[in-house]
Design brief:
Blueprint: H1 12-24, H2 28-41, H3 46-58, H4 62-75, H5 80-92, H6 96-109, H7 114-126, H8 130-143, H9 148-160, H10 164-171, E1 188-189, E2 195-203, H11 208-214, H12 218-222, E3 225-232, H13 234-242, E4 248-251, E5 261-264, H14 268-272, H15 296-300, E6 306-311, H16 321-324, H17 328-335, E7 340-344, E8 365-366, H18 374-382, E9 386-390, H19 393-401, E10 405-408, E11 430-433, H20 441-453
Parallel strand pairs: 1-5, 2-3, 2-5, 3-4, 6-7, 6-9, 7-8, 9-10, 10-11
Helix pairs in contact: 1-2, 1-3, 2-3, 3-4, 4-5, 5-6, 5-7, 6-7, 7-8, 7-9, 8-9, 9-10, 11-19, 13-18, 17-20, 18-19
């Protein structure tokens, strides 16, 4: 077959334009067919091979993407975008040193492209090198001051390092970057000033854990003014109302009332926590009084054993849940001791793992059927001696309640847990168990088992 020149009616540019739109629309089969057809006419076109790699990357097939990018470099060894894509594929595969080298080569080939410095910063951040990440983000922003995503990622690196003054300032960019969906909002943006005789609406955003985290500020916010309205996820409404601070609690999706002011919930730390010294060591949540006895019959079954709640997975819709979740059976290697009664707080699909455990194991009491919302979960957690779990919203709930909680972290954890610490200033009752390297769960579980044995009463 003669592949020296494509037919006259063949336009790689038009095809690549269609590819970008189809990837955005997640029409992966269609876009792969389009690329394959084009490659039969021009099999050595590096742009088409690169586009195929982008589709594989969107599908999560990073090894296939890596091969495509390498193949594309055979025909375009000086393509800075190709080297950057290769670096991103290595990053997804946790080959951080190789990824950084690829991104640096991309910059050497075309150093004035802001997105290349942003991609390098993302790689440094993923590798836990946040000082280097900030320098890369700084360069991207110097080249393009309106590069909102670079500012957002710089915010998280500042927060990882505990630099809250600069971190919170950058964190506000999420309100204009498109990460928070636009919608009509009542009144003007609140900046922490007193609002006597006025109404303030606190707006929900992000996940359950974020809402539970910011509830610490409700008393302070209420003390500055008149009527306080809290919007939150439906599963949190009853719990938030039970705290008795907000004048009104509205489920997300319901109409918002007129108000003089509004404030997105994750803007509150920037108003009231300029540094770690401002954090209170007191528990700021309490279980609903009308549900405190709901789980008493289950706890009586412990018969003197240590009552430990367990959670082994966060939300399955969270894109990086696989990095922070564990199979239940693997978790039990560290927890299943005489003298311990385990209680499952797990919700969602991972709960099904309970049914597949081998016969003869000490029984785990599954509370999921009675956990209809976070008010129930708060009541259940408050009756436990300890919660041991991977990183998800229940960690924030237990920490806010002041219940001892051991959080098993992946290597690239959430910024709230900071770096290299076994404690958490945000939640004094929390203890953190960290791996030495990516995927080092055996080290984490080994330490958990050793520490748990210090607590298990003799039988």
């Amino acid at each position: 077959m003669d592949t020296s020149a494509p037919p006259q009616d063949f336009s790689v540019g038009e095809i690549l334009g269609q590819v970008a739109g189809l990837i955005q629309a997640k029409k992966y089969d269609e876009v792969l067919g389009l690329i394959q057809n084009a490659m039969t006419k021009d099999p050595t076109n590096g742009d088409l091979i690169n586009a195929k790699g982008c589709v594989f990357s969107a599908l999560g097939r990073q090894r296939d993407a890596l091969k495509c990018y390498r193949d594309a470099l055979e025909f375009n060894a000086t393509g800075s975008g190709l080297w950057s894509n290769l670096g991103t594929a290595f990053k997804h595969l946790k080959y951080f040193s190789a990824a950084i080298a690829c991104h640096r080569r991309a910059i050497d080939l075309s150093g004035e492209e802001p997105f290349l410095h942003h991609n390098l910063g993302l790689c440094y951040a993923e590798a836990g090198q946040h000082g280097e990440a900030i320098m890369a983000f700084n360069r991207a922003l110097a080249l393009q001051p309106t590069y909102h995503l670079a500012r957002w990622d710089r915010a998280r690196s500042f927060l990882f390092l505990g630099n809250y003054r600069q971190g919170w300032a950058d964190y506000e960019v999420r309100l204009i970057s498109g990460q928070i969906p636009k919608r009509p909002l009542p009144g003007r943006k609140w900046s922490g000033e007193p609002y006597p005789g006025e109404r303030l609406v606190i707006l929900t955003e992000q996940g359950f854990g974020d809402t539970l985290w910011i509830l610490r500020y409700l008393s302070t916010v209420k003390g500055l003014g008149g009527e306080l309205v809290i919007e939150c996820q439906p599963a949190l409404c009853a719990f938030v109302a039970s705290l008795g601070i907000a004048d009104q609690v509205i489920a997300h999706g319901q109409p918002l009332p007129d108000a003089a002011y509004h404030c997105h919930q994750c803007s509150l730390p920037g108003l009231f926590t300029p540094d770690l010294s401002r954090l209170s060591t007191r528990a700021y949540l309490s279980p609903p009084t009308d549900r405190k006895d709901k789980f008493k019959p289950h706890f009586e079954k412990a018969a003197g054993r240590l009552k430990i709640g367990i959670v082994w997975s966060g939300s399955m819709t969270f894109g990086r849940n696989a990095d922070r979740a564990l199979p239940l059976e693997r978790l039990l290697l560290a927890l299943d001791f005489p003298g311990v009664q385990l209680y499952s707080l797990q919700k969602g699909l991972p709960e099904q793992e309970l049914a597949s455990l081998p016969q003869g194991r000490r029984p785990i009491i599954d509370l999921a059927a009675e956990l209809s919302d976070f008010a129930d979960t708060a009541a259940a957690v408050s009756g436990l001696d300890l919660v041991i779990m991977t990183d998800s919203a229940v960690a924030h709930l237990a920490g806010g309640l002041g219940i001892p909680v051991w959080v098993l972290l992946g290597y690239s954890a959430h910024w709230l847990w900071l770096l290299n610490r076994t404690d958490c200033p945000w939640y004094p009752s929390t203890r953190l168990f960290r791996p030495r390297v990516e995927g080092d769960w055996d080290y984490v579980l080994d330490n958990v088992a050793a520490e748990l044995l210090k607590l298990v009463p003799p039988r």
